[in-house]
Amino acid sequence: MNIFAKLKKSAAERRAVRELGALDDRALQDLGISRANIQAAVKGMVVFG
């Protein structure tokens, strides 16, 4: 993966964390994510279900 792809991926992850962080706890619960697991969910390190 080249540097530009890494930068693009990093920017997308930061945006996703920011957008999920803006949701209320009920919306996060509907998605199956706790506030403490937002970053892990964005990085794909949380198992849903």
Describe the structure.
- The chain starts with a helix and ends in a 7-residue tail after the last helix.
- It has helices at about 5-20, 25-30, 40.
- With about 50 residues, the chain is mostly helical.
- The radius of gyration is 12 Å and the shape is elongated.
- InterPro entries: YjiS-like.
- Pfam families: YjiS-like.
- This is DUF1127 domain-containing protein.
- Give unreliable regions as ranges: none
The structure class reads mainly alpha
SSE pattern: HHH
Alpha-carbon distance between the two ends: 30 Å
Strand content of the residues, in percent? Answer: under 5%
Question: What portion of residues is helical?
Answer: 55-70%
Shape: elongated
Radius of gyration: 12 Å
Q: DSSP helix count?
A: 3
- Strand tally: 0
The overall average pLDDT, rounded, is 92
Largest sheet: none
Pfam families: YjiS-like
Organism: Shinella curvata
Protein name: DUF1127 domain-containing protein
Domain YjiS-like: 4-38
Summarize the structure.
With 49 residues, the chain is mainly α. The chain has helices spanning 3-21, 25-31, 38-42. The model has no long low-confidence stretch (mean pLDDT 92).
Topology:
Blueprint: H1 3-21, H2 25-31, H3 38-42
Structural descriptors:
single chain; 49 residues; mainly alpha; 3 helices; 0% strand; elongated; YjiS-like
